[in-house]
Amino acid sequence: MYFLKSSLSDSPFAKSSSSHVLPWVVGALIYLATLAVLGCQGVYRTMETWHMLLSEHVTVEIPAAQKTKDEDLDKLKTLLLTLEKESWLLEAEIMPENRVQDLVTAWISDAALVKTLVLPMLVDLRVSSEQRVPLESIHKKITDVFPEAVLHNHAEWYSPVLRYASFAQFFSVALALLTVIIVIGTIVFSTHSDLIVHQHIINILQLIGATDTYVAAQLEKRMLRMAFLASFVAIVASVVTLFTFRKMSSAIIPFEHQEWGIIIFIPICMIAVVICVTRLTVLWFLYRKDINITL
């Protein structure tokens, strides 16, 4: 009965040919699942930010006319006073010339050349997201005063980007689910292999009174140790990857709570999955007597 009370280090179940390889395989899968969920969360956060910034803004571009610039500015102010009476318009702002130059500088690096350009006047209209905005009516009122004016509705290019972002989110979730399925399959295969390798010892344990639950507990201890090691590898790799990505993309931005939560939560969930799958696999195969061989 001493063997039944022995620790995992004394148990033959701790000695397995897969003990050195399995933590790295499962760790890589947990790391991949973490990256997939982080990617999904990053895409969602980016799209949410773009939606907040672009869904409530419409830009009016009025071609520049040097000779009548002051006159155009007076007409524009009169037009904005008319539009501000509408309930859907929250705010109207004529962008200063230096801000327009800053926008152009993103494509033309020569600041001196930008200052010599005749740039159009831009008007930023912040509209209500809760009301229907009559874009055709706005465009008509503007073109009545400025025939060559152009109304830029950012939703026209934002909608296709949103569809691509939704596909990217779906792909990330599918990848995370696929890694979970692969982890489950790997644990089932590894556990069944251990049962076959130690089948004679299991038969002896059953003869002296060991229950299926005891055998499952022994394999759970080994898998728990493996899962902790794999999770540690995945967490370290995820943190290093995220820091590297931040540093390469821009200045290092402090981690947000959601990212820390994902990096910790996914490995913890995987540990729980490993323990549950190990127990169910052992109990199932022992119940079906798939590993028993007559001695």
List the helices and strands and how they pair.
Blueprint lengths: L21 H33 L2 E6 L6 H15 L5 E6 L2 H9 L5 H6 L4 E7 L7 H11 L4 E4 L1 H43 L1 H9 L4 H38 L7 H32 L7
Antiparallel strand pairs: 1-3, 1-4, 2-3
Search tags:
four-stranded antiparallel β-sheet, 295 residues, elongated, disordered N terminus, Alpha-Beta Plaits
Summarize the structure.
With 295 residues, the protein is an alpha+beta fold. It has helices at 22-54, 69-83, 97-105, 111-116, 135-145, 155-197, 199-207, 212-249, 257-288; strands spanning 57-62, 89-94, 121-127, 150-153.
Verbal overview:
- The protein is of the alpha+beta class and 295 residues long.
- It folds into two domains: 3-51 and 160-288, no CATH class; 56-153, Alpha-Beta Plaits (2-Layer Sandwich), CATH 3.30.70.
- Helix content is 66%, strand content 8%.
- It has a four-stranded antiparallel β-sheet with strand order 2-3-1-4.
- The longest helix has 43 residues, at 155-197.
- The chain is elongated, with a radius of gyration of 32 Å.
- The chain starts with 21 loop residues before the first helix and ends in a 7-residue tail after the last helix.
